[in-house]
Amino acid sequence: MEIISNAANGFIKLFQEGGTTFMGWVTGIIPLVVCLMTAVNSVIKLIGEERVERFAQKLTRFAVLRYTLLPIIAVLFLGNPMCYTFGRFVDEKYKPAYYDSCVSFVHPVTGLFPHANPGELFVYTGISAGITKLGLSIGGLAVRYFIVGVIVILIRGLLTEQIYLRMTGKTNK
Questions:
Q1: The model's pTM
Q2: I need a labelling partner for 135 at 20 to 30 A (CA). Which of 9, 62, 124, 152 fits?
Q3: C-alpha span between 165 and 119 (Å, rounded)
Q4: Helix 95-105 to helix 138-168 angle, to the nearest 10 degrees?
């Protein structure tokens, strides 16, 4: 009888923990994302959707810019997870590669711009603690982390684009 009671209590506790996590989202990340979306959409409306679209389309015409400059701008100005919304400016066939570039950049950016992805800051601080113990500069680490991140997002974007286009049978126009 006690086993059934413990199992029932454990089952309910699982949902209570889920509810606590959900309330954390409702009072934390969801309002943040809604405010960021509102602010970004307001700025786009003020500038003019056509202008922003034209700029983004020009920017995304070139693969190098599509998988470096656009994700960098998105991550620095919007942070994680809002940076993915800039994918709306990318042609449908390039969206998976754009997403891959953004996902790959939200970690290397934390050394110079911790606001972009504070959830990953613990990784960078762990690495930088080891660098500090060696007596080396963490500023240099942050810059190298950023540069390598840009190189990696370009490579990943280009590779993901080619893989996606081959898998879907689409051509690169």
A1: 0.70
A2: 152
A3: 32
A4: 160
Structure tokens at 59: 């920017």
Q: Is there a contact between 93 and 60 (Cβ–Cβ < 8 Å)? A: no
Residues of the chain falling short of pLDDT 50 = none
Size of the chain in residues: 173
Alpha helices by DSSP H, the chain: 2-27, 29-47, 49-60, 63-66, 69-78, 95-105, 121-133, 138-168
Backbone dihedral angles phi then psi of residue 46, each to the nearest 5 degrees: -65, -45
**48 contacts 57 by C-beta, under 8 angstroms:** no
Per-residue pLDDT of 28-75, as tens digits, reads 767 776 787 788 778 888 998 888 878 877 888 899 999 999 999 889
Give the chain's count of helices (H) and strands (E): 8, 0
Count CA atoms closer than 13 A to 13's CA, side-chain side.
6
Taking Cα atoms as reference points, which of 134, 15, 146, 21 lies closest to residue 76? 146
Place of tokens 């786009």: 44
